[in-house]
Amino acid sequence: GRALSIPGAEIARRHLGKPLPNAALLGGFAALTGQLQLAPVQDAIRERFPGSAGAANAAAAAECFELVRDQLAAQLEATHA
Asked: What is the 3-state secondary structure (H, E, C) of the chain?
């Protein structure tokens, strides 16, 4: 299994102005599992939350996605070093 710690509430606060990390964490989940691609996750977020709220949540999801992807790559590199 894989486990990572990501600052979902902090990322959400930066993008939304509130510590509501659900969309951000969904982006992290997509990266962690590899079962979802980022673009469809962002599309679903924007559909559910139109306007600026959707854009902010989609950006938070992207930031978490990239963070988790980078952490996984670093872990893989460390195990092969």
From this structure: CCCCCCCHHHHHHHHHCCCCCHHHHHHHHHHHHCCCCHHHHHHHHHHHCCCHHHHHHHHHHHHHHHHHHHHHHHHHHHHCC
Query: One digit per residue, pLDDT tens: the chain, 81 residues?
Result: 667 889 999 999 999 999 999 999 999 999 999 999 999 999 999 999 999 999 999 999 999 999 999 999 998 888 887
Half-sphere CA count of 8, side-chain side, radius 13 A: 17
Tokens of 72: 């996984």
Which amino acid makes up residue 25? L
Least Cα distance to 57 among 4, 11, 7, 3 occurs for 11
Q: For 16, phi and psi rounded to 5 degrees?
A: -105, -20
